[in-house]
Each structure stands twice: as structure tokens, then as C-alpha cells.
């Protein structure tokens, strides 16, 4: 389903808390299902939480949401890009915000 005029949504996950990650993923999947540009950044300490995303993470990918991992957060916990799902993207807060445009910004 695509809803005309849906404004983009940018979500920043700022903690490794599983409940917050699942809420962010549900929000991202729902927004992507409406046809809006959807980006989710797992910032710094939230990076390891990507490993608990499960079916919700898969839904986000299938619906076209972009899932971005903070590069400095990856380095801090020793995660290598090559060992992760190839659909993940990598960046940081500055590049994420630089691409914000008119998207709504939510921090969880």
C-alpha cells in the first residue's frame, strides 16, 4: 500500500534496549508499508542490538526501509561489515542528518 504524500521518517535508536529497538523496527516497518522513505540508524551503543532484530528486521528490509549501523559503534564492539547482513548500510550521525531533508525525525 502506498499513501500519497507520505513524509519520510528517520529514526535514531540511541540505546541497546530490546524493547526500544523492537518499537523502532515496528515503526519503521509500518511507515515503509505506507510507501514513505524510511531510514533507521542504530547509533553507537545500539549497534549490537541489530543481532536481536529477527523477523521485524527482515520485514523492514522487505518493505524497503534502510537500516544503518553507526561505524564508530561497530568499531567499539568489534563488528566487521563483512560479517553482517549485506542489506545493512553503514554511516554515522552526521551523514544521517545530512540526508534528513523534510523527513520527520524520531529518537527512541
Topology:
Layout: E1 9-13, H1 18-33, E2 38-42, H2 54-63, E3 66-70, H3 71-77, E4 89-91, H4 93-98, E5 104-107
Parallel strand pairs: 1-2, 1-5, 2-3, 3-4
Q: Explain this structure to me?
A:
36% of the residues lie in helices and 20% in strands. The protein has 108 residues and is an alpha/beta fold. The chain has one domain (15-107): Hypothetical Protein Ychn, Chain: A, CATH 3.40.1260. Strands 4-3-2-1-5 form a five-stranded parallel beta sheet. Helix 2 links the parallel strand 2 and strand 3 (66-70). The protein is globular and about 40 Å long. The mean pLDDT is 93.
In short:
With 108 residues, this protein is of the alpha/beta class. It is 36% helix and 20% strand.
What integer value in Å does the Rg equal?
13 Å
CATH architecture: 3-Layer(aba) Sandwich
Number of distinct helices: 4
Strand order of the largest sheet: 4-3-2-1-5
Biggest sheet features: 5 strands, parallel
Mean pLDDT reading: 93
**Overall morphology:** globular
What count of domains describes the coordinates? 1
The name of the CATH topology is: Hypothetical Protein Ychn, Chain: A
Unreliable spans are: none
CATH superfamily: DsrEFH-like
Distance between the termini: 26 Å
- SS elements, strand count: 5
Helix content: 25-40%
Beta strand %: 15-25%
The CATH C-level name is Alpha Beta
- Write down the secondary-structure element order: EHEHEHEHE
Amino acid at each position: 500500500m502506498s499513501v500519497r504524500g507520505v513524509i519520510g521518517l528517520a529514526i535514531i535508536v540511541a540505546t541497546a534496549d530490546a524493547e526500544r529497538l523492537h518499537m523502532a523496527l515496528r515503526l519503521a516497518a509500518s511507515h515503509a508499508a505506507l510507501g514513505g522513505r524510511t531510514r533507521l540508524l542504530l547509533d553507537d551503543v545500539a549497534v549490537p542490538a541489530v543481532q536481536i532484530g529477527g523477523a521485524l528486521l527482515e520485514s523492514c528490509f522487505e518493505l524497503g526501509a534502510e537500516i544503518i549501523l553507526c561505524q564508530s559503534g561497530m568499531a567499539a564492539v568489534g563488528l566487521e561489515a563483512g560479517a553482517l547482513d549485506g542489506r545493512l548500510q553503514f554511516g554515522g550521525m552526521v551523514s544521517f542528518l545530512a540526508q534528513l531533508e523534510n523527513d520527520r525525525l524520531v529518537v527512541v
